[in-house]
Amino acid sequence: MARNVVVTGGGTGIGLEIARRFAEAGDAVVIVGRRRAVLEAAAERLGPTVTPLVCDLADPDEVEAALTTLPARIDVLINNAGSRETGFGAGPHALLARWRGDFERNVLTAVLLTESVRDRLTPGEGRVITISSIAALRGAGSYGAAKASLHAWNHFLAAQLGPSGITANLVAPGTVAGTEFFGPRLDEAEVSRRAARTLLGRIGETGEVAAAVYFLASPEAGFITGEILHCNGGELLGR
Ligand SMILES: NC(=O)c1ccc[n+]([C@@H]2O[C@H](COP(=O)([O-])OP(=O)(O)OC[C@H]3O[C@@H](n4cnc5c(N)ncnc54)[C@H](OP(=O)(O)O)[C@@H]3O)[C@@H](O)[C@H]2O)c1
Q: Which keywords fit this entry according to its UniProt record (predicted)?
């Protein structure tokens, strides 16, 4: 049976590839982001079962407004939206902007939507999957701290949803190419440096993260909850 799937940040990068996996399986997929043109182009490419929804998920008013468009029953919710801004400068004001911004972009985007649609998650088979990062366990300042707080929240969420038979898990990627995340920062030298930190000697692909998400969303993964699935070529273990 076709499922109702919501993918935040589904217009680009990892989210786009996740949306593609579900759309190819015949599911109805809502992709959420702030840029209408990006979402519409993605939906056009992915096919008629994919619907764009423009919403800044860090803004409670926009999340509330989005509730009228989101499906009444959600089988799979994928909290993938997130980003890491750089170039805030020095001093306490810049520090505050960076830490607040990373928390808003990576934590509140997931928490505001999930808590708002909680009652729409399908009992017995619903899935919530949130994208963390290797940065949650290996540094990266305010961004890593924000992703790490998703881990605590996910544990809480899994405990709350468990009695309804709904699972909540995280996928934590290492460096993944083919997204807007790094912008021009991910040049050839940086790719080599990051590849050398993994056990496989390469960085990841968006489809590899999408495959991990798709597995956690499958009926076969129904006894897995509160977990973090690392997808980083062995970088966490190191050489
Ligand atoms: N690429 C990596 O190496 C890597 C590694 C570890 C974890 N991650 C995580 O993977 C996830 C996907 O990132 P990506 O690499 O695919 O980068 P990306 O291409 O920049 O994707 C991020 C998506 O999130 C959306 N988004 C950001 N803020 C939003 C907001 N406030 N409301 C709604 N949508 C928002 C963006 O669309 P709009 O700008 O149009 O809103 C964009 O489509 C992120 O959570 C990131 O932290 C990435």
A: Oxidoreductase
